Request: fold
Amino acid sequence: MDEDKQGPPATGAQRPRRMPVVPARSAAQDADAADRAAGVGRAPRARHTPGVGRAARTRRAPDAGQMTGASQTTEAGQAADTDRPVGVIRAAGIKDVAAAASVSLGTVSNVLNRPHLVSPPTRARVERAMAELGFVRNESARALRAGSSRILAYVMLDPSNPFFTDVATGIEQVAATADLSVFLCNSGEDADREARYLDLLLEQRVQGVLITPVDAANERLRTLPALGTPVVLVDRVAGAGEGCSVSVDDVLGGELAVTHLLERGHERIAFVGGPDTLGQVRDRNAGALRALDRAGLPPDRLTVLATGALTVAEGRGAAERLIGLPAGRRPTAVFCANDLVALGLLQVCVRLGVTVPGDCAIVGYDDIDFAAAAAVPLTSVRQPRRLLGRTAAELLLEEAINPAHEHRAVRFTPELVARASTAG
Reply:
């Protein structure tokens, strides 16, 4: 009613209530209101994208400068509303793939996780839909649901040493057959750094940890298995009942090296290596002393030249100290704790005109590929490097999937490979 044509306004309780003016509603708005009242959400209006399945269509972009709440679907099929700038398209999920390929969610899951259960034509259709939609599986979501990732980790002492990279190659060979990835971590022979890596790997829920430890007595090596992350020691021996390990008999290896030098007529022998905090160094030194004892020679016939690390540079430094000794006390043969040290020592001998093996015979350890390729081919104690890695990874996977798994300590026998650096 037009207020100009009314009489005097009513007073008190007789005054009528003024009704608000309601703007006209469209049919679409009325339908939306009805759906909300019924508890049903209407699908957002989408525009067609050529070559993309209907499930992957995105919402119509709002006016410039505004934000839109876009539905983001995870691999598990769960949607979460997130604010996203205009033009950013949400990642396709398995619901999108299933719709585009006209298959069930279970079929998509099988293609991702158990492809052998899906017929080749269906698998090809699903994989084509994944490619068209740009689908990338959400591995973080899968790991969260499963409680562990599809990752193995190898914590090594020194990636610059080919011994450890060869071990890692063996680990990777086994991991590849199980459709797993391998993370390589470098402790740098630093116990604190090693501890930080172990804490991080536990947080990342890796499926298992292989480690050549700085200290095999590290408490974390027992904590991780108790928290559900299996651990296998590589190139070290685990204590009784403390887990699996794969190693080489380093005491025997040291004995083989020095016995070989004794048989070549050397009685003044040097042992070069360190630090002695590394179990491998201690064991190889112990083997050298055992060889002297069996030959009836006193332990002081073994001159120990300690190094700060098992590197080529440390080998060079040891060579300079060795050559600087008085001629009457200078050892005529050297057993090095690894091949890198031996190669550094050999380099200095060649540079300074010290003949090998005439003036100084040299034996290394590990038999890396560079040993045979040296200027004077290097005699070395061979370890089955890739076999160490493969065996360790197999033990780790067995422990991860087999509740009846029993811990084992696998120990391989080293072999001396004689070359020109001792045999002349």
Observations:
- Residues 148-248+387-412 form a domain with the Rossmann fold fold (CATH 3.40.50.2300).
- The CA atoms of residues 256 and 377 lie 18 Å apart.
